[in-house]
Design a protein that fits this description.
This protein is of the alpha+beta class. 27% of the residues lie in helices and 7% in strands. A three-stranded antiparallel sheet has the order 1-10-11, covered by helices on one side. The protein has a three-stranded mixed sheet with strand order 2-4-3. It has a two-stranded antiparallel sheet with strand order 5-6. The longest helix is centred in the middle third of the chain and has 21 residues.
Length: 484
Amino acid sequence: MWKSVCLALMCVVLTHAQFPRQCVTPEGLQSGTCCPSPTGLPNDECGSSTGRGQCVSIAADRRPHGPQYPHDGRDDRERWPLRFFNRTCQCNGNFSGFNCGRCRHGLTGPNCDQRSTVVCRNVMQMSTDEKRAFVNDLDQAKRTVHPDLVICTRHYQEIFGPDGASVQCENITIYNYFVWTHYYSVSKTYMGPGQQSFGGVDFSHEGPGFVTWHRYHLLQLERDMQDMLGDPSFALLYWNFAIGGSECDICTDDLLGARSSFDTNGISSNSVFSQWRVICESVEEYETLGTICNSAETNPIRRNPAVNVARPMVQRLPEPQDIIDCLELNTFDTPPYYSTSSQSFRNTIEGYSAPQGNYDPVVRSLHNLAHLFLNGTGGQTHLSPNDPIFILLHTFTDAIFDEWLQRHTAGTVVYPEENAPIGHNRENAEMFVTAPENLGYTYEVQWPSEAINHETYSSHFTLCHPIYKKKTDKIKSVSDLFHH
Ligand SMILES: *[C@@H]1O[C@H](CO)[C@@H](O)[C@H](O)[C@H]1NC(C)=O
Ligand SMILES: *[C@@H]1O[C@H](CO)[C@@H](O)[C@H](O)[C@H]1NC(C)=O
Ligand SMILES: *[C@@H]1O[C@H](CO)[C@@H](O)[C@H](O)[C@H]1NC(C)=O
Ligand SMILES: *[C@@H]1O[C@H](CO)[C@@H](O)[C@H](O)[C@H]1NC(C)=O
């Protein structure tokens, strides 16, 4: 039983993540083996001498993917990580990690048999000190080199470098590693010099893996930050973006940064985030030269919440009612398991459907709407995690996903096994489990629970947002929101 779980986990250990530093040597890449020893246990690949795991040949997903991607063989991310490594660690029981040196999420102790839980809370309900600490922790992650993982900045064909012996991989900071993995998962398929790159791929959006991909990488970031801080109780926070209106409530200098008084698209110099610089901006270069984003930081974060004049539909945040509506959808995903799916919980929380589930190409709701509302770095898919609002927006999206899993007691059988867009088959669904029982974290959140009649909001929800809203903000119907 655990064997199949671990096989699945193994896939995820290297899925759209990059590689442990020890593995990206010329010899490592030539051998196709990435089986490091746990820290402090030299020459013990995958901790096999203590029963933690073993080095095995891996079988990546062979099931058919959907028709959106017709270029099989052209993209390094197909059947990941086989293009780079075909032997990796398979961890036993409660062990995990690329070297089986860690415990699975939610477990701790030398034998990984003690439960541990962290609580993800609403950023608006933190004390002044907690807010300051969270901002500082993020800033530290932006500046601290990832202790284990590196990014590769060339496609496999060029990975050994011009001389065949200088592997094109480099260090990156913990926060930028998160940004980079997101960029890598959404980047186009390079088709060769002078050819148009192919944009019909996205390994983390527009498919059932949307919720599980983001969950996996948020957990990785949370763990990296726990390690960085030496604090296993560190937890990410969430932003309840479903508050309606056109106010970015977390855009204040004690949190994610107020608007700059000198530049409506910039962040106030009183916020440390005004000093952050983005990575992965040079998309034209990646697409025409076949390069890959590297760790170089360039321009400041841009953000202009609620002021996209060309697109009134994205000038308001999602409404509490939208959450009530999307949680009522019974089906996790529907064919073609894509951004065109109708009556799909996944496509609705992602935000390509109206909150009630009906697909409409002009609609942007929930997660997508919250991104687009930011009108800047956080609203452009390849760049969005550069704005730290991304983290809080996605923990809340994950909270809605977890609430859906709990209310619908859904198991992986409802996750499509095949014919989802490339990268989105069930093989990649080991995060499709309720978080408190299986992954060691819970959300402290009060869900809107009654039909909201636009005049008064259910009282316990109002508690979370005391400064809620005025009657004049009311809308006639939810669909008015999403049409130009
Ligand atoms: C694994 O990868 C190595 C290095 O690319 C290659 O030489 C070897 O043939 C591969 N083995 C299998 C079973 O695919
Ligand atoms: C894994 O951890 C759980 C929870 O503490 C424990 O009940 C179980 O025995 C552990 N499994 C192994 C194989 O150690
Ligand atoms: C990358 O980071 C590691 C760990 O901090 C360090 O030992 C190594 O020297 C760094 N490599 C480069 C090229 O900076
Ligand atoms: C922000 O809004 C402006 C004005 O409508 C628009 O031209 C621009 O494309 C938007 N930027 C982003 C990144 O969404």
